[in-house]
Amino acid sequence: MPPFDPSVHHRRSIRLKDYDYSQAGAYFVTINTYELQHIFGEVGPDGVTLNELGMIVAECWEEIPAHYSAVELDAFVVMPNHVHGIIVINDVGAIAQWATHASPVQTEGVRGPKPSSIGAIVGQFKSATSRKINATRHTNIPPVWHRNFYERVIRDDREHSSYWDYIVGNPGGWIEQRPG
Questions:
Q1: Does residue 93 register a pLDDT over 90?
Q2: How far is CA 7 from the centre of its chain?
């Protein structure tokens, strides 16, 4: 194996440069399982049937606001190999507003996600679910989650409605896409 070379072996961030992901706003997130393994249940004509691991994921998702007082959860779905959800970060004591602009954030010399940011929230969620799932299945191999996650800053009511519809309709779309 060749030695580590930071000019070659680096992860390119998929986040918006200079955007403060802890600011008030709504965020659509997708979190995939490791190698897209189907470990959380099955999708059938009546929707998603979660197994024990899927129920752990749903319970941990619903507990997020207990750990972050400025966070509200909107639509979410646990699928066999991923989770979609809308996370709303509120200003303390304020009504949720959709993010409309990027605020510069100081990142020089800082490692890891900013506290109470989408990265921190998703990181804690993934850590908690991994711990509980690994205890249930008595192993941490293979990992539960893919090493990253995808997010989209929701900028207005039209985008919010579109992502909400996508999340709610995801199980039906899953059935239509799978060979019969």
A1: no
A2: 29
